[in-house]
Write a structure and sequence with these properties.
4-stranded mixed β-sheet, 5-stranded mixed β-sheet
């Protein structure tokens, strides 16, 4: 990592002080801070100190460039490990719908970089008994959605072209898992109305907004942790004490299952169950009344 400019100058000044033949150059003991202080005064600054500062700037710029170069090399090294979960995720995000792959220098890739055609916005890999489960989703107006039939078929053909030989890759793209909650919210009656809206802005329901925002912020294929969800509700305006009485989730047409500690969505993302909207699953109780 590149040193700071002042650290480099101090190192050069310290090295200078070890040469007896340079002791006549004043001040004999110098630091970056004393130089900067002198620059703010009306006194003349020794030319050798200014030259030393210029050299320090050059060294600092050189070290910063090495940092940039190192970061680029590390990214290339990570991308060069073909067949890893990270590689499958990256290749999924690089998929360009409607474009044919071309053999360029022995690598199947695209000759044109079309960002608009990159429809896969989220991807995750789960290894299952020697097979790879690749979860993907697209996005529309900020909402995650499954690929449609045509998009899925094309994406699967793309994965078949680039995957490691002999590897079984199953693509999963589906609608969200659904979350059912039963929550008691003790609220401040000076701030919140009995229906959960703010007294000063009836169009805002902080608890519902907090739950929806928490679900939207989860990493793709990340775990919904109930304690973290409660923390998000607790932070909502007007909430004094939230009590989570029940949490269940389901995927597709499967029955609801209880969540004890955390839940990882089978589809990779989740939303509130439309059969159990927050408006009916949250009980608001005035605190202290």
């Amino acid at each position: 990592m590149a040193r700071s400019l002042t650290a480099i100058y101090d190192a050069l000044a310290l090295e200078k002080s070890t040469f007896n033949e340079l002791s006549a150059l004043q001040p004999d003991i110098d630091t970056s801070q004393t130089l900067l202080n002198d620059l703010d005064s009306t006194s003349q600054v020794a030319k050798w100190r200014l030259m030393l500062w210029v050299v320090a700037v050059c060294v600092w710029a050189h070290e910063k460039l090495w940092d940039v170069f190192r970061a680029e090399v590390e990214e290339l090294a990570k991308a060069s490990h073909v067949g890893t979960p990270r590689w499958y995720v990256q290749k999924s995000l690089e998929y360009q719908h409607g474009y044919a792959l071309e053999d360029i220098n022995g690598v199947f890739t695209y000759s044109i970089d079309d960002q608009v055609a990159r429809i896969v916005k989220r991807a995750a890999v789960v290894e299952q008994g020697g097979t790879v489960l690749l979860k993907v989703a697209k996005e529309a107006a900020g909402v995650l959605q499954p690929l449609d039939t045509v998009e899925r078929d094309a994406f699967e053909a793309y994965i078949d072209e680039i995957k490691m030989a002999g590897t079984v890759v199953n693509v999963l793209t589906a609608g969200p898992d659904y979350l059912k909650l039963l929550v008691d919210v003790y609220y401040d009656p000076l701030v919140m109305a009995p229906d959960g809206s703010l007294i000063l802005n009836g169009g805002v329901k902080p608890v519902e907004d907090a739950i929806n925002a928490h679900l939207a912020s989860l990493p793709f294929n990340g775990a919904l942790v109930l304690t973290a969800l409660v923390d998000s509700i607790q932070a909502a305006q007007g909430v004094v004490n939230p009590v989570l009485r029940e949490a269940q989730a389901r995927y597709g047409g499967f029955p609801l299952q209880a969540i004890d500690v955390q839940y990882v969505a089978y589809a990779g993302y989740m939303t509130v169950d439309p059969f159990f909207p927050l408006a009916t699953s949250i009980t608001y109780i005035p605190y202290g009344v």
